Amino acid sequence: MDVGCGNNSPYRTKLIRPDCHYTGIDIGDYNQTQPNAADRYVLTTPENFASEIGQFSKQFDAVISAHNLEHCDHRQATLEAMLQAIKPGGKIYLAFPCEASTAFPKRQGTLNYYDDPTHQLMPPDFDEVMVTLRERGFSFIYTSRRYRPLPFRILGLLLEPLSWFQKKVFKGTWEYYGFESIIWARRNN
Question: Can you give the three-state secondary structure of 94-140, one letter per residue?
């Protein structure tokens, strides 16, 4: 299940893994310029987002939520619904802006959390998300409060003068600053 599946995610995922059963859920048809390859594609309202996800109890081997939580009206309910949708032994991948991003420079393409007017309140609290996962019986495969892989961080460092001058995010800018929090976890059996 891909939660917040805009930007041609169904098409790209099925291109890489045509054998997977792909269910995408979102509140709008965002940037879907390629053919929709989803096996199931659910569009709902922000008010019903968490409850729609909640209808898929223990049905998925994997749930992907890449930059979705920060947009949710009911963030905790959405997280809980995603966790309930995962089968025992299944995995979840979460990516969201780090808490420190509220103090990052403003850039086109979103570097400061508040650059995106659709972001709700504050960034998700990394520690609270970790506690929720642990309390719901998940163990951690990988976590990073501020994801900064070295090759992209170096690229970001090299491009930072241009990014600063143009006030625009370039490849490597997020990694240079550590914009993303990432959690990859497995539901215990």
Answer: EEEECHHHHHCCCCECCCCHHHCCCCCCCCCCHHHHHHHHHHCCEEE
Each residue's pLDDT tens digit, 14-38:
999 999 999 999 998 888 888 788 8
The Cβ of residue 92 has, within 10 Å, a number of other Cβ atoms equal to 25
Contact 159, 123 (CB under 8 A): no
CATH of region 44-150+182-187, choose from 3.90.550.10, 3.40.1440.10, 3.40.50.150, 2.60.120.10:
3.40.50.150
Give pLDDT tens digits for 126-163. 999 999 999 999 999 999 999 999 999 999 999 999 99
Two tokens, residue 75? 């963030």
> With the C-alpha atoms ordered 19, 88, 45, 180, is the resulting torsion angle positive or negative?
negative
Domain boundaries, the chain: 44-150+182-187
pLDDT (tens digit per residue) in 50-87: 999 999 999 999 999 999 999 999 999 999 999 999 99
